[in-house]
Amino acid sequence: MFRLCAIGLVLLAGWMVYLDAVVTSRFEGRRFEVPSRVYARPLELFDGASVSAGALERELSLSGFRKGDGRKSGSYQRTGNRFVISTRGFSFPDGDEPRRRISLIISGDRVQGFSVIEGDNAPIVRLEPAQIGGIYPAHKEDRVLVQLDEVPALLPTTLMAVEDRNFYDHFGIAPLSIGRAMLANIQAGRIVQGGSTLTQQLVKNFFLTREQTLVRKANEALMSVLLELHYEKDDILETYLNEVYLGQAGTRSIHGFGLASQFYFGESLKDLDVHQIALLVGMVKGPSYYNPRRHPERATERRNLVISEMEQAGLIEPGRASRARGLPLGVSERPSYSENRYPAYIDLVRRHLARDYKEEDLRSEGLRIFTTLNPAIQYAAEYAVTDTLPRLGGGQNAEALEATLVVTAKDSGEVLALVGGRDPQFAGFNRALDANRPIGSLIKPFIYLSALQEPERYTLTTPVLDKSFTLEFDDGKRWQPKNYDGEERGEVPLHKALSHSYNLPAVRVGLDIGVDRVQETLTAFGVDTPISRYPSMLLGSVSMSPVTVAQIYQGLATSGFNTPLRTIREVTDAGGEALSRYSLEVEQVADPAAVHLVQYAMQETMQEGTGRSAYYTVPEELSLAGKTGTTDDGRDSWFAGFSGDLLAVAWVGRDDNGPTSLTGASGALPVWSRFMAQVPQHGFSPVVPDGVSYHWVNSERQALTDEYCDNARLLPYIAGSEPTQTISCSGTLERRIRGWFEGLFQ
Where does the record place the catalytic residues (predicted)? Predict the structure, then answer.
């Protein structure tokens, strides 16, 4: 017997050594894998800020603000178009934004009457940015770390009053509590009471499985004692506050009171009231059973029981307890922290982050990633796709259609919105990034730009031949390009060939200046994949993703500057220290004068050419520039265009590359137009660069003419390339007088 006891003690000692190593190795160093958090851009409010009342309310909801009287932090009141908002404050990379209470009116999609009612006065107030997603550890645990000295004192005292009254007195286990629990359970014939200390609960969550066996319970007790031997009580309590499981958000588990406060109330832990603290503490017993969103009656009963425990323990006075029991749960309608709201956009963010950060660090270091996403623009983009797509094609064809939309800030290249398919919430194949499809006529502006950079050879009025021809290659194969409508028009001015998207002139010009030259232009504007040098490339056989198309059209919108698209403004560590700043980068890759001429033709596309149907949806006074694109059998429908503020690229097609009945004008353009019609913005009014002057010309005859002559058009020319021939017209004086009178009534 003695030998057996001795062997048992040796084995127990060895097992204790092993458990001790497990406890210390996990508890020391980095105790938690904290996900990185991805934020939208902050909404800045000031007199004159551009935002609609609906967009402001949606963004407040997205950021977890609750509708109320606008007095409590994280709430707002709306009366018509007047808003009163109580901000929470936020720690931005460039400094802290304090809490304020502000008032404003939305009129004509602009902020008016902006004022700070409470807090430090400021002309501009930034709202807390909405968290739009996260990059989570493989085990899908999510938490917001808190320190014990940041936690309201009522929380740990309530937790101990309910779960472990003798926490600061025991050594990890409480034999008397275990005995009382066993007796109560035996008398009830079922488990009605637990005897675990907070330390044991932490050990169970932190180190062990949830199986109910004697071996696991024995390990739990031993490890609890070891944990108490190594670490201070406050350290254990702080870890418990960050570890305890308090709910589920889809595939993510909500751990710790820091995240639970935001998840259920949309508020910081330090701002919770008595009844909210009581609810969270009560949920420790069973987060699913007492889920306040699914089972409000159970949750209310449990919360009130905890409030009574607080009263009995002397933590709150009777009157305060009575008032707290009479309050509603106060849970927000939906979690302020949910699954990634914009999976396609987050996908692009992750690819940009991969240039500088390891995936392991993104999943575990609690980085804060501040992006360029604009929730109002994203909402409009998603609506444009989901509202327009079912109306295209008709019948089964419409059901098979997919669409993408990429929106950037015209001048900075910041990606403001991105839709990866007809279901914006789908987290699978991201067509905006990975659907590489032939771009069709979207290539034509780059063909003509290459030519117009030789002003001694090409201008907007240079006649180009719209007539069929045949190329015969060395292997005997023949290629005969055709126009989409099958017609031929003879000589046409270059600007008309572009705005009406004629194929034959584009191919002729491309062959004249050389396929290699067009390839060099595309590469300079941001194409980083191989481009075929076959003549068919001149009709858009080169494949690109919608994001790549947005990249190259960004250069056209910014007068020839390659502006790399970016989704990230700044990355900080969990403590707010800046790690990376992603500033604007530009490189001039084309002559601004030549780009200006292409911009003119793209504006003509919208007024007179293949994009004119946009104005069935978009206000006529909004000046736009754009280009349609269509591939064989309508397999790919494209539209790329820009205003003074935004650039957007739309694609419509089928995943199986099947034919559709759509063109760029009947497929992608309606999606693009629907988006542009929803967003307040300025028209495109390009600055005329040095070396460009405008002249009245008769473009059909390539001659200078008078403003009031027939067929007169005001066109830009690179200095020295304007026509030298002049033609006059009869009745000039009469036309001037008529024009003067017409001008009086415009």
Answer: 163 (proton donor), 441 (acyl-ester intermediate)
